[in-house]
Design goal:
Elements lengths: L12 H13 L4 H16 L26 H9 L5
Length: 85
């Protein structure tokens, strides 16, 4: 599971007692419950990076003359021309 680091955390007595009781009931460890709680908290607070559309432009002279001033239907027809559509 990777490396581990020992640390000391001050926890209210009543909370620690409740965690110990839960750990015993669920046949797990206090450490496992603390790690689970920390992972849940991090998962809720970590915000994903905003989506950024990659630059996909290319060098050229714009639209083909056949569709430059045409409708979307004409553009679609040109796209599927010769493809059975």
């Amino acid at each position: 599971m990777g490396t581990h680091m020992k640390t000391t955390v001050e926890i209210a007595d009543a909370l620690l007692s409740a965690v110990k009781k839960l750990a015993q009931e669920e046949q797990t460890t206090v450490r496992a419950l603390i790690e689970e709680g920390l992972r849940d908290t991090l998962g809720k607070r970590v915000t994903p990076r905003p989506f950024r559309l990659r630059r996909a432009s290319f060098k050229g002279k714009g639209l083909h003359p056949d569709v430059g001033s045409g409708s979307w239907e004409r553009i679609r027809d040109r796209i599927y021309e010769g493809r059975g559509g």
